[in-house]
Amino acid sequence: MNGNKQAAGVYSVPKQWAERAFIDAQRYEAMYAASIANPEEFWGEHGKRIHWIKPYSTVKNTSFESGKVSIRWFEDGTTNVSYNCIDRHLTERGDKFAIISVGDDPKDDARITYRELYAHVMKWANVLRSQGIGKGDKVTVYLPMIPELTYAMLACTRIGAIHSTLSTNCPPKVLASCIADAASTVVVTADSGTRGGRKLELKVKLDAALDKLPEVVTSVIVVKHTGAPVSMLKGRDHYYDELAETVPDQCPPEEMKAEDPLFVLYTSGSTGKPKGVVHTTGGYLVYTAMTHQYVFDYRDGDIHWCTAEISWITGHSYTVYGPLANGATTLIFEGTPTYPSMSRYWDIIDKHKVSLFYTAPTAIRSLMGSGEDAVKSNSLASLRLLGSVGEPIDPKTWDWYHRVVGGGRCPIVDTWFQTETGGILMTPLPGATELKPGSVGTPFFGVRPELVDAAGNVLDGVANGNLVIADSWPGQMRTLYRDHERFEQEYFSIYPDKYFTGDGARRDAGGHYSITGRIDDVINVSGHRIGTAEVESALVAHASVSEAAVVGYPHEIKGQGIYAYVTLIDGEAASDELRKELVSWVRKEIGPIFTIDKVQFAQGLPKTTSGKIIRRILRKIAEDKCTEFGDTSTLSNPAVVDHLIDNRLNRK
Ligand code: ATP
Ligand code: MG
């Protein structure tokens, strides 16, 4: 049996990209140096890309000093996010499509112009007001990927309310805890939704959550989406349509301070209970708009499609706020990549002439499994740039994405960021950075990454260490909702005076970074610290392997042994022979210290509702501590875990 050799190629920047892109290599160097040498001046200039009601006179007022962490940008300026995302485009782009909305059913799609968006958002704002919502109040938004989700979020920003948007995958327990944590008095939902042909019982799940919180929520606004009948609690539940009839059409934007909270967003929960991350108004919008333009080389006329659910940071920043602040056309899709067929994504790209396509490795891997034919029935000629985000992308998947989806001509921006960072912190820039599969390139303007060892010593040059950020950037989170102490503790105390990302990374001689995995997941084999990404990439490079996750477990001689969970491609059978072959394959690919001790074949891997592998659960199974999983509220596929437990290899 032969595997594919791991792609190790480096792609230099094509001439036409270097010539045409906003940022070429020289400009990157100059702008980056300027952003670090004088952040005040740099951001003072770039802050002007958004409209300010009252211009700022101070730019940066930030401290990472442990115990006194305070992050304020453009603090005496005032602005309004919905004004920036809608009103200011109306004269020149009123008839341009702001949103292309693609339904779960391929027959359903809709286009919304900026002028229509304006009308919808003002109506929504007045409906929220009619339910007692004003400046500083919290609204939970629990909607499928339909235009109303964007209307509701922008309506909050119009009147200065703070939104907390939750994934439709959230089970009632998580819904209840997030609603209670954010203390939202109003929740917006839909009767139900459909995703991948399956019904999403949104109102039913919300009712179950609210049963646990009788006091908190005074109003539920229900969008009639599928038209399915749902139970409505008198006095509390209202259909949006009925409320809309009773409120005015016009709603001027509220003047907001730059540091007024914009939203609370809960993290994916890969490493534990989700945290309520708080982002504010001015700096966030400047940073997401600027990264959207430069990272994706966004131009007027591009059709931008970020497939992430809007309820994750990627959707907030690169489906809604960044693109709309730039006057872009953004596509939102209600369904899944595999319904009604494996070519759904590619059909949408051709039909709507998508030019910038941004998705996650987990989606690409699942589509790669169905072969190239599903892609090749479409031309994909409109694509000019591809993006990846959410997890490390292994070189085999990168190569397939580049060759089969991008036709070899589209650069891939592998963007690293976190809910906490608001926008992309490290990425290749398509006109400036040579592309190396598995590398997240170089820092964006104003971002100062450092690698440190466990004791906090800064590592220079080529190095492998823990990734911290030495100074603030405008899109950074400001606090954890109602828990500034935990914010300080979790992010600024481990390496005093630096923002701790929780991720490990490697830096090569050219100053390019690769994310090696989460630090919690590092495996220590006979004194060698091994990140998960490298071993997993090597496993996935084998032709029989679809997906892999590795964790450490206590080992008498080596300290920790490497335990691999492997799912095979369709039609491939698990065998002892294959197990042995995978072990020797990985040794050959990346070296003998990476000798895997145990290989468990799996039907699937435990994932969060956003599709990220939860290695913390896998670690417990490998340690035979199957009753100690901790918070599993964001686990999307519990049946997979039962199967893993039944077939575990370490039993006492
Ligand atoms: P929690 O913090 O609750 O455990 P989470 O970290 O999964 O959840 P997110 O903020 O959605 O929540 O994810 C950010 C993390 O995703 C990063 O810290 C990193 O581990 C991973 N990540 C994101 N983009 C990339 C990328 N391009 N390459 C490698 N890893 C990435
Ligand atoms: Mg995290």
Task: Report on the architecture of this protein.
The protein is α/β, with parallel strands linked by helices and 652 residues long. It has a domain at 525-645: ANL, C-terminal domain (GMP Synthetase, Chain A, domain 3), CATH 3.30.300. Helix content is 31%, strand content 23%. It is built from 21 helices and 33 strands. The protein has an 8-stranded mixed sheet, with helices on both faces. It has a 7-stranded mixed sheet with strand order 5-4-17-16-18-19-20, with helices on both faces. Strands 24-23-25-27-28 form a 5-stranded antiparallel sheet. It is globular and about 70 Å long. Residues 1-7 have low confidence and may be disordered. Adenosine-5'-triphosphate (ATP) is lined by residues 267-272, 274, 312-313, 389-392, 414-419, 440, 501-503, 515, 518, 612.
CATH topology of the domain at 525-645: GMP Synthetase, Chain A, domain 3
CATH class of the domain at 525-645: Alpha Beta
The value of Rg in angstroms is: 24 Å
Strands of the widest sheet, in order across it, are 12-11-8-6-7-14-15-26
Give the strand tally. 33
How big a fraction of the residues is strand?
15-25%
Any key phrases for this structure?
binds adenosine-5'-triphosphate; disordered N terminus; 652 residues; eight-stranded mixed β-sheet; alpha/beta; globular; single chain; 21 helices; seven-stranded mixed β-sheet; GMP Synthetase, Chain A, domain 3; binds magnesium ion
Describe the structure in brief.
This protein is an alpha/beta fold and 652 residues long. It contains 21 helices and 33 strands.
Helices and strands in order, then pairings?
Layout (H helix, E strand, L loop, with lengths): L14 H6 L4 H13 L1 H8 L13 E4 L6 E4 L4 E2 L1 H5 L4 H4 L3 E6 L6 E5 H17 L7 E5 L4 H13 L2 E4 L6 H11 L3 E5 L2 E3 L2 E3 L1 H10 L7 E5 L13 E3 H5 L11 E2 L3 E6 L9 E5 L1 H14 L7 E4 L6 H13 L3 E5 L10 H9 L3 E4 L1 H8 L4 H4 L8 E5 L5 H11 L6 E4 L10 E2 L14 E2 L5 E4 L5 E2 L3 E7 L9 E2 L3 H9 L6 E9 L5 E6 L4 E3 L2 E3 L1 H9 L4 E11 L3 E10 L7 H15 L7 E4 L13 H8 L15 H9 L6
Parallel strand pairs: 4-17, 6-7, 6-8, 7-14, 8-11, 11-12, 16-17, 16-18, 18-19, 19-20, 32-33
Antiparallel strand pairs: 1-2, 3-13, 4-5, 9-10, 14-15, 15-26, 21-22, 23-24, 23-25, 25-27, 27-28, 29-30, 31-32
Bound molecules: adenosine-5'-triphosphate and magnesium ion (MG).
